[in-house]
Amino acid sequence: MEITCCCIVLCILGSSALGILGNPTNITEGINVQEITIEPKVYAYEGDRAELIYNVTVRSDLPPDRLYEKAVWFSADRQNYCEISQGETKCRGDQFANRTEISDTWFPVSEGERTRHGRIVFRLGNVTLSDTGRYEGEIKTFDNINNVNTMLVVKDASERPKDEDTANQVGTTTWWNGFGAGIGTLLGSGLAIAFIVILSVKLAVRRKSSQQASTAPV
Ligand SMILES: *[C@@H]1O[C@H](CO)[C@@H](O)[C@H](O)[C@H]1NC(C)=O
Ligand SMILES: *[C@@H]1O[C@H](CO)[C@@H](O)[C@H](O)[C@H]1NC(C)=O
Ligand SMILES: *[C@@H]1O[C@H](CO)[C@@H](O)[C@H](O)[C@H]1NC(C)=O
Ligand SMILES: *[C@@H]1O[C@H](CO)[C@@H](O)[C@H](O)[C@H]1NC(C)=O
């Protein structure tokens, strides 16, 4: 009797510890490989289409009907969300109505691999400054729920660099924090040029003002 009680307590402790850690661990023969990741910050300009791309990992032997839900919530209220659940896709909430899309793709699993990788892509069209906020991505299976937060930062349309207009005719200006992965070459070079131009203008201004204040120590 005492042994049974002890086991129940330990089991509860064990499962909550796994839940809190949320990271893949080795404890239970790799059962907890499930994961969802995204860049911490994604930027877009007012009027554009923002794109949140989540990398997801589940067990390769997970039957499709045990992947219950893939969702993105707008965290300020959790009234606005998109989800793919049991093969059905839906988006709800005033803020998300008629301008959101969610889709998922999965990469093939090679023989003997224990994990399956995929992507969830969430798109929010015609973004406004009020779309700035925390977005939460979630995957849920029969034994696990994983969440990740990202900050969508919508910038005022007037802040858009001039050179970008031509590079941006597809209507999407999403780029990743730190100009890293995912940046289109075209958009990338447009931004790089804008950056160099702005930088050199700033340097020129600085040089001029330091010449004026030529008494300042070097
Ligand atoms: C996890 O387990 C595998 C074998 O099951 C082992 O090769 C690997 O080193 C372990 N990783 C860690 C971080 O303990
Ligand atoms: C997502 O996966 C891609 C490769 O498929 C990688 O380049 C990128 O860094 C990953 N992003 C995150 C946030 O894990
Ligand atoms: C969304 O579209 C439906 C019909 O396609 C329309 O009835 C509804 O008013 C629209 N909602 C918003 C918030 O624009
Ligand atoms: C985008 O949003 C603005 C402001 O909410 C609205 O005036 C405009 O008609 C929208 N454009 C499209 C294409 O939905």
TrEMBL record:
TM stretches of this protein: 175-201
Keywords: Membrane, Signal, Transmembrane, Transmembrane helix
UniProt keyword annotation of Signal present: yes
Signal peptide: 1-22
InterPro entries in the cross-refs: Ig-like_fold
Domain of life per record: Eukaryota
Full protein name: Uncharacterized protein LOC118423088 isoform X1
Record organism: Branchiostoma floridae (Florida lancelet)
Taxonomic path: Eukaryota, Metazoa, Chordata, Cephalochordata, Leptocardii
